[in-house]
Every structure is written in structure tokens, then in C-alpha cells.
Design goal:
- The chain is mostly helical.
- The chain has one domain.
- The protein contains three helices and two strands; from the N terminus they run H-H-H-E-E.
- It has a two-stranded antiparallel ribbon with strand order 1-2.
- It is rod-shaped.
- The relative contact order is 0.04.
């Protein structure tokens, strides 16, 4: 017949009740907190979606710019190749030689130095 509980038993019971209430509070979601969490989650997902969409749009713009640059460089490369071929043509070289009043070389002869020096002379005759 115990009418009164001891103080240690009462403290143990109180701690047990507090622990259970803390656990219950942590696991419960009411309709307001669930709505707030849902709205927050939707905002985060929307922000993620917008960021990715913006990134894809920027990459597409950069890709288009680079393709245009490639096309212009290809045109310039063709133009430079044609100019190079034209500058190397025999007809053009002959016309430039005529403008500069150059003469055709018929005979080239080399002479060695008479005094044993190291420099040789080149004699070019155009006739």
C-alpha cells in the first residue's frame, strides 16, 4: 500500500514524459507547417529550374555565336587560299618582273679568288 511515490521515481516519470513530448513535437507536422514546407520546396525547385533554363539559353547563344565565327573564319580562309594561289602563279610573277624591269638570266658563272681568299665572285650574264 503505497500511497506516496518516492521523489526519485517521480523525477524518472517526469523525465520520461518530457522525452516523449519532445519526440512527439519533432515528428508532428500540422497543416500550416506542411503548407509552409510545400511552398518553400516549390520556391527552391522553381529557382533551380530557372537557373538551369537560363544556363541552357546562355550556352545556346554562345554556341550560335561560335558557329557564326567558324563560318566567317572558313570564308576568310578560302579567300586567303585563293589569294595565295594567285600570288604564286607564274603569270603574276612574270608581270611583276616586267614592272620591275628585270631581265632573264641565261648564264651564271662562279669564279674563285686568285689570292686564296675565302670569297668567290658570281658573274651573271643576261645575254
Amino acid at each position: 500500500m503505497r500511497a506516496f511515490a518516492t521523489s526519485s521515481q517521480t523525477n524518472f516519470d517526469l523525465r520520461r514524459v518530457k522525452e516523449q513530448s519532445y519526440l512527439d513535437m519533432g515528428l508532428r507536422f500540422g497543416p500550416v507547417s506542411l503548407s509552409i514546407f510545400t511552398i518553400f520546396l516549390l520556391c527552391v525547385l522553381s529557382l533551380f529550374y530557372l537557373t538551369n533554363t537560363n544556363s541552357v539559353a546562355i550556352k545556346g547563344y554562345e554556341f550560335k555565336e561560335l558557329e557564326q565565327k567558324i563560318q566567317s573564319l572558313r570564308k576568310e580562309n578560302k579567300k586567303l587560299q585563293l589569294e595565295s594561289i594567285e600570288l604564286q602563279s607564274i603569270q603574276r610573277i612574270e608581270k611583276e618582273a616586267e614592272k620591275l624591269k628585270m631581265q632573264e638570266i641565261n648564264k651564271v658563272s662562279y669564279t674563285s679568288p686568285k689570292d686564296g681568299g675565302s670569297k668567290s665572285k658570281v658573274v651573271i650574264s643576261s645575254n
